[in-house]
Structure formats: structure tokens, C-alpha cells
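Researcher: Last one for today. Full complex below.
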Amino acid sequence: MLAPWRSLLSRNLHHNRSKPHSRYFQLATVTPEGYPANRTVVFRGFFDDQQNRLKIITDARSAKIQELEHQSQAEICWYFTETREQFRIMGNLQVVTCTEQDPTLQKARQSTWYDLSDAARSQFAWPDPAKPAASKSAFEVKSLDANSPAQNFCLLLLTPQKIDHLQLRGDPQQRCLYTLQDDQTWLTQPVNP
Amino acid sequence: MLAPWRSLLSRNLHHNRSKPHSRYFQLATVTPEGYPANRTVVFRGFFDDQQNRLKIITDARSAKIQELEHQSQAEICWYFTETREQFRIMGNLQVVTCTEQDPTLQKARQSTWYDLSDAARSQFAWPDPAKPAASKSAFEVKSLDANSPAQNFCLLLLTPQKIDHLQLRGDPQQRCLYTLQDDQTWLTQPVNP
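Model: Here's the assembly. Have a good evening.
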């Protein structure tokens, strides 16, 4: 059974579908020093399972990887500009790398790689991120094989534990919390905005 | 002198001015438990000083306040949807409350309150945020005095220490780091995206 907040999220994705940025959200993690880190990432759909896991991709060379080793909890803030609704999605973020042993997860990593555009795949052959800027020619890389993920290509799976849904439209604004219980059912609590 | 990234931010605010959401950004903090927290807030302009401080407002009853007592570092992720540029702004976040003794900061708190819309001010008389939803009538509050900030009205001032500017347009993408040095000058480093 789908979690109760899934249909709300689907409705927002549908109503904001004319805007490519409606599939972007901000992902917050914590650095090894205990500081917050926050960046925009692309929603790559849901992993097809019962846990409502969201798919994100990243590069093994990215700072996110070290941060998640230290603290695997993350919080997504997803604001839909057309409908004016916000979803804060708190949960555990799992990294699926080239050494992943679980065949289902490794298959998910491969199919996510396959579904990328050529341009998105090429970025995994770019020079090391956040290092001093390389020459333009270093970014002129050939297309990578869609059937064979780059070694540094990682799939991230966020398993939601708590959702804070806010609708700015309406008087007053509407806010509702969804919390995953020990029995894997969702507790729904309307709260003050 | 303005920090070198200020003009880039101004250019984005100008080019995205038709979109009210271009003045919203996502603010990441760390909870007392060490988890990341992330929510959309409104940019209220720069504080008029040499430190390039960004103004945000919040309610003393908000979870942010406790989080900032524990960890005052925060990271803003500001994505401009029209120009496709992202600013990650890391810095220290100071809370200016009703008991603030510094006259300049207290004056800034009062003028920020004065500049709010009636509707925005009224929210500070709403029932406690995140508590079980109160009846609709509890949200029907009278206009608050523009000259006298609500006790629970807080001004937040973020002092930037590091900026990570990414331009998605362009081939390859352009990325540049700006880091505040001990001598209060900014180090500019073009890096790989």
C-alpha cells in the first residue's frame, strides 16, 4: 500500500510538470565536523518497493559520500513553486556503489545509469569535482556506455521516516505530519503551520 | 567594498525578479541530535553593514531556535530557476530576539518587523507551530502593531563565510568558491563543477 503522502506528492509532480525544476529538491546532510551541508539534486523517481524510497544519483568523488559515512540521516526540502506546497522528507540515505553485493540494489544502480541522458552520464568522466578548474578540453569526454555504469557512479536511496507537508495556499495554511511507526504504518497528524 | 559574489547574486535576483519564489531559499541547520534539518525561508534583504549579512525572520517557537543554540552554523541553498544558478552560502546564523541588548541589532529587528505585510505579522499571533491543529477561528487574529514587534518575532542574520556558486548553463558548467579570509578579504577559486 502506498504511504498516505505519496498521492499528495504525485499530485504536486503532476501540477508542476511544466517546470523542469519541480523535479529538483534540496538535500541537507551533516559534515564530519557537525556542520550542515545543503545542495540541489534531481529526483530520479521512486525505487519500486514497499519502503517509498526516493532515488538520487551522485559521484563517489562528491563530498556527500564522506558526509553520509559519518551521518546517514538526511532531510530533503522540496518546494513546488506553482502549487506553493513544501515537503520536508526526513530519512536514512543509503549509498549504492560499484561494490554493492545486493543484486537488487546493484540492478537498480545499473538501470538508473541506463536511464540517464548521454550528457548526464558524461559528467562522471569529468575532472575531479571541487578541485582547481581544469582546462575546457578536459571536459570534452566521449559518451559513456549506457550498459556499464562508471565506477564512480552511485545511486542514493532515501528511506522516508517523517514527512512534514505544508500548503501555503489557504487561510490558514495547512500543515500535516506523517510519521512511520514501528509496525510500518504511517501516523497522520494535522498540526499548526 | 562589496564581496565579489554580491554582484552575481544581485544579477540573479534581478533576472529572476518576475518569480516571487526567487526570493525563497532552503536553510539547513543541525538538530540537537545531530540530524540535518531543512526548510524554505524568505530572503528579507541584506543587513546594511560590511559583513554581507542576510536577513531571515522566524518565530521564537520554531524548532530552528533550539537547533541554532546547539549549532549556529547553517547552510543556505539558493537555486534560481530561470538563470539555473545555485548559491550555497555557509555561515554563522545569529538570532536577534526581543531581549537583544545591541541597539543596532534591536533596531534592525524592529525595522524588519515594520517592513512585513499585515498578513506576515499576523502569523506571529497564530497558535503554536507544529502543535495539534487548532480550530480555524484561532487563526483569525487582528492586525498587529507595525511599530511594536511581537515578543516571539526573531530576526536571523547569516554571516557568510563560504560561497559555492554553480552555473548549470554553459558547457562545461562553471563553479567558483569564495572563501572569507582572516583579513576579511575574499579568496576566489574557480573549481571543477
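Chain B has one domain: 6-105+153-191. Chain B has four helices and eight strands.
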